[in-house]
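A note from the maintainers: we've had questions about how concatenated examples are separated. There is no special marker in the raw files; a new sequence line simply starts the next protein. For clarity in this README we add a label.
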Amino acid sequence: MEAGEDIILLSVGQETEEQTPAPIVSAATESLHAGRHHYSAVAGIEPLRAAIARRHQWLTGQSVSAENCIVTSGAQNALFAVCQCVLEAGDEIVLSEPYYTTYPATVTASGATLVRVPVQPDDGFRIAPDRIEAAITPRTRAILLNSPNNPTGAVYTQEQFEAVVDICLANDIWLISDEVYQEILPPEDRFSPASLERAAPVCVTVSSLSKSHRMTGWRLGWAVAPLELIQHLYNLSMCMSYGLPPFIQDAAVTALEEDHVTAGVVRDAMDRRYRLLQDVLKDVPGIRIFNAQGGMFVVLDIRSLPVSGFRFADELLDRYRVAILPCDGFGPSGSGLLRISLCASEEKLVVAAERIVEYVESLREGVDKN
């Protein structure tokens, strides 16, 4: 491969060809010109925390105050901070595998241990509540669930979340709910464990504007949690970030106060792109594309082909100029699976899918010749 060659990039969850909506950008520039570039409140400016609380109520039906919300430098920072506050050396946290690539380092930085529960495609990539319960030990301090899931797109049902919340209450452990992709689900498919009133003492909701508002580079996220945990997160933020830029927060207020249009635009785009990809790949012998319930990714199963996920991704990039990710990086159970991002244009996705078909056919021809 030569430097400067055009690559169809389907390896990242970022719509590189789309821009943050203009009103949000304008809010940031107007704030800068107004001199809003000094220190700000460590937990976030009050209008933003109040806007997050209103958005949380809109999504869950449960009322929270601004004091239950803390602003962070993206959802990743929120997850890291929450783990630092609720976990310590010797603790365990239960999560499904495949999982987002940063989870292991995020958890182990606290000294805690991941208890991985592998999930399978035929189970919809969802971890059954009874398997979660079986993984709990006296050292368990939290369960971490990501719905819609990255990389699999799995979405948990209300019934499943109700069972998990009851497990947390019975065992006095935290439920950390990573909901970065939640808002780009159709409204009828959305369910947060925070929607359950009884979950309030044990539930921590982590989210951001990165996916729903095309704001990945703005690094604006938050956590919604019980007041006692928010105080610990505040103390950690004092020495970790000392507050976020106020002009970024002003733009976030505009994003949250608008009519929720951007998330719907993103959702419709993901749905169209998924259907285009599925139309090309669904009947190709040797591979299987799984239904994307939500989020920005689909999973491709190549386990019947004579190549590993790493080799498939490497050769697809070298020979066909398409970049996708082997799911081995999301945990050992991801072996033989690949994650395809839906964040490229429809035209590029169709071209990429056709190149995947061409590569798969070349692999099958090689097997037939042998």
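[label: protein 2]
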Amino acid sequence: MATIEDDDALALIGIAVILKKKRTKTVIKKRKKWCKHWLLKKKTYSHVNLLNELKFEPEDFKNYLRMDENTYIKLLAMVTPMITRKDTIMRNSISAHERLSVTLRFLATGRSYEDLKFSSIISPQAFGKIIPETCEALYKVLRKGYLKVSKSNFLLLIALIY
């Protein structure tokens, strides 16, 4: 027959087991932020505002993107149909103007995606898609008029392929 002391001991063991299980359960972490606070203030901190100001200083505009404003506008008109994305219910898309300007800035400076995020207010993950897509669009648009291969080089390329 069990005594009161045995019952107390069993109760204590039961409580200890329950507490142990509670401690070993996976701790559900508090969800991190979906987006950093300063990234939400894109209109305030974006390099697009700087570009709008640089239009009044042609030398600075040329220094920033390594081309004058007229060339930039022509290039933007050529690639816009290829790099424009649709807005969704969740968020606005990154405009063709932002895509092209950040790609040109990346090509002109060689800065890392992590560094560019501070001046453009675009995430490095987005750069991983934006910059290659924009470079491909630039290549498709400019290859016929500006990237010509001489006949001898062209024949050499064909010979190498086969």
